[in-house]
């Protein structure tokens, strides 16, 4: 047995909860991207728009922390959405070097269309699981998030 064999990870890693969460996340993200593509939107852009819609006036740095991505990734997406007229930057009322992000009317319309797509994906999941399992899944995922935050 080589030293590498002693340090290898057993195949049971595929049965871990975190691996199951990741596989589910990949599947959902892939479906979101596939279904949003005809609207000219990526799942990451939807996430950014829904975040700004929920909390208008976020800064790029706040958004990056909230989405757990780099400020550069947010800046790149903001620039694309701004070019499309879906997002605008406004001066922060107290910090002259900071800009707040706000949806435009076009951004709200695009978000509305994209959200209908996402709701369709969520409905499909809920239909397949049934109301009881869907509620259990949501409760378990909330619990997982709480446990991980506490760790």
TrEMBL record:
It comes from the Bacteria. It holds the Pfam family MarR_2. GO terms for biological process: response to stress. Residues 14-146 form the HTH marR-type domain. GO terms for molecular function: DNA-binding transcription factor activity. Gene3D superfamilies: Winged helix-like DNA-binding domain superfamily/Winged helix DNA-binding domain (1.10.10.10). SMART domains: HTH_MARR. This is HTH marR-type domain-containing protein. It comes from Streptomyces griseorubiginosus.
């Amino acid at each position: 047995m080589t030293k590498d064999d002693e340090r290898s990870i057993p195949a049971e890693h595929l049965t871990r909860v975190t691996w199951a969460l990741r596989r589910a996340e990949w599947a959902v993200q892939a479906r979101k991207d596939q279904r949003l593509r005809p609207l000219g939107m990526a799942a990451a852009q939807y996430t950014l728009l829904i975040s700004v819609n929920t909390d208008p006036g976020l800064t790029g740095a706040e958004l990056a922390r909230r989405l757990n991505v780099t400020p550069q990734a947010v800046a790149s997406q903001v620039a694309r959405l701004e070019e499309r007229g879906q997002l605008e930057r406004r001066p922060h009322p107290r910090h002259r070097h900071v800009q707040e992000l706000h949806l435009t009317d076009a951004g709200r319309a695009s978000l509305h269309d994209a959200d209908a797509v996402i709701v369709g994906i969520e409905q499909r999941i809920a239909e397949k699981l049934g109301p009881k399992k869907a509620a259990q899944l949501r409760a378990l995922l909330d619990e997982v998030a709480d446990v991980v935050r506490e760790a």
